[in-house]
Design a protein that fits this description.
Layout lengths: L4 E4 L3 H6 L4 E6 L5 H12 L3 E9 L3 E6 L2 E6 L3 E8 L12
Antiparallel strand pairs: 1-2, 2-6, 3-6, 4-5
Length: 96
Amino acid sequence: MATNIIKPIITEKMTAMADKHRYGFRVDKRANKLEIKSAIESLYGVSVADINTMNYIGKKSVRYTKRGFSSGRKNAFKKAIVTLKSGDTIDFFSNI
């Protein structure tokens, strides 16, 4: 079950959202909200109140090289914003 969570998203915007008990995770594209909820609860020992998911398509990237233009796409991914019940927090930096 915990394999649905790929990694937490640690950005300035997500760190600011942690004050409201909201955390971002990069998750498997095939995972649904129930699987994400059970994975978060088992990994971090918290209770989840709400989950919002977003599917991102890969951004287009073009660069100029010696041989001409090289174009392609970056990887597509799914992001989950997890809202915890009040009183619960996740500390990503406790193991450092």
